[in-house]
Amino acid sequence: MRCPGAMRCPGPTGRAPVFLPVLLALLAAGGRGAPRDTVLCSQGLACRLLDSDVLCGMEPAAPGPGLELLGLRLEPELRCAGPGGCSPCLQARLRLGLEPERGDGDAGTAASARRDGSALLLLSGHGFASSRCVAVQVRASSAPPGRRLGSVRFRCFEAPLGSELHVTAYSSARGRRRLSQRQRLPDCSWPAARAAIPQCRVPRLQVSPGLTAVLVEVQVATTELNYTLRLYHNHSHGAGGSGRAVTASGPMNYSVPLEEVLPCLCLQVWPEIQDPLRATLCPFSHDAAAWERLWEQTQLVLHDVGQTFTCSISAPCDLPAELVPCWKPAPTAPCQALPSLQQPVTGQGPQEFQALQPHHNLCVQARSSGKVWLTQCLRDGEQPAVLPGYADDILLMEPGGNASLCALQRGNCTPLSSFTAMGTGQPGLLEQQLQEDVASGQCMQLWRSADGSGVTLWACPMHKYTRARWALAWLGVLLCAACILLLLLLKKDDVKGWLKSLRAGCGCNAPLRGRRSLLLHAAEPVAERAACAIAAALRPMGMLVVAAPGGGSGVAAWGPLPWLHAVHRRALRGGDTIVLLLSPAAEAAARRWEDAARAAPTAGDAPGCPGSPHDPGDEVQPCEAFAAALSCAVPALSAGTGRYVVARLDPALSVPHVLRAAPAFLLPGEAVGFLRALSGRRRCRLERHGAAVAERLRRALGE
Fold first, then answer.
1. In CATH, which of 1.20.1510, 3.40.50, 2.60.40, 3.30.1050 is domain 516-702?
2. Which of 153, 418, 485, 635 is most buried (CB neighbours < 10 A)?
3. Ramachandran region of residue 592, left (φ > 0), alpha (ψ -120 to 50) or beta?
4. Which residues sit opposite 135 in a β-bridge?
5. What digits encode the pLDDT tens for the residues 359-418?
6. CATH code, 201-289
């Protein structure tokens, strides 16, 4: 037996009588057994619990023969303080016999003598988190020596679920006085523990994915307890990262936004009791969408620190990926992986590529499952440093041994004898020059294996070889430009006629051909007459005009919002011009809309008009087309999207503040400027068409 602390335990023949007065004093005091501890004896034995918490480390002894220990058996039990409030323990069952007198003859003579026997028993239970000893007094009368008298049961030694307990029994007999046994308590797989021990009543977790969030349902085992739900990121280098916890007193549903659903997100729930078991679930480790979100939240940063090429990757979860340095001569060019330099991602800190020299064209790719997720280049930094090399440098590889140089392109290494720069020229034309550059040190050594027996990578400049080719190309461009200029001079009359036809195209009978407009007006007679006149005047010029209905009939009778939102979205997508006809009723509606929006600046967007910063709510009458149209026009004007024109019908009308972002014209006086805004042409002559529009408006407004 191993004793707690620095105590020493004497062996079976140790000086144990020192402890006898202590036990006798306990016996005289009548014992101090705990109410929950019980001692049961079989027939023929009398026993009682002297103390349920005595000093461990001493063995009791008696001067004469007593009851000796014949066997020790440990059995799992449940100690219950009430229904459903049990804890696990071990019951110790001792088999006892009468120790024979010293000097007895043969067995027959000893068996014929019958006498009384007694014993002081010390039971100890030692576990990882607890240590306890109890004292028991046992008496037997008129029993033959050496025979089994019966058994004593002590209930019981408590210990946590699944823990191991070392139980030792000592007797005051002079012979066989000590028995020891180790026993592991059952865990929650023990059927008797599932319903009786609170720690075993673990809630269940159910995950239901949705369109915008994941619903976590906690199905509790009992409604009398509080439960804690914890969400955390699990990492391979630790038990689990920091997270957040939610406490509830019964079944609950918890919503996790989709942007937080990552492969390492785990859920853990437990009841608020001492030493509870926890239900853990990591349901997204194989979710493809979760992996996509993880890579979207991952950052790859390259560092250029002197002659050391390092990178760091930061992500909420561990990434089973590898980092691959690659060569990318242009932003749109594919990245050529450098051989023998890929390495796995290890943690979140900086990772160094040994002996790799920085270069203008070097990048790093993060690859996982055969797919490139991230690519970061040195030249793409927020503050790009002055990097060695040029974008037109060519990447050469020198294999180990006596192999010749080759050019790395598109995943292959092309021998210089077959290499042609920029896809022109004859193969092998640059072979000798590049070999001389490598030998003379004009090429930059990017990487060389540590032992010098592997491949070596070189970056060789190509601008000195392509300079002559560019000179020839510019000479060809200048020659072509001279030929075109000479042709124009020879055909001067034809060019003049072509320019005249272009100018005439702006003043033709259909200057607005191919243009479309949406005309929005209020439900009052003067606005409706003006809208009809404007539409009639613009159609002969080639413009397709759609007018919003007013009044209380037709589309406006069942509400203009759905129809207006549909045509407004269609006009924005098609690049149409939206004309806001400002009449007295339209100005009043705009003022009311502006006042309501100022009074409720945080109101939600109007239905069907995304991005609306204001919504006057009840101020928009259901049968007023112009007021309803403001819920779509004002947000687009504020955002600077769409083409809008305001047409005033009265000089006394002023443009409301919410419409001042659009150009405004007073009709019929500024009809030419109005048409120029519709056509988008600044130099076209539209006076004749403007006069026609003004005449139609005067007749309509005069009526």
1. 3.40.50
2. 635
3. alpha
4. 51, 122
5. 889 999 999 988 999 999 988 875 556 788 888 899 998 887 666 788 888 778 888 877
6. 2.60.40.2150
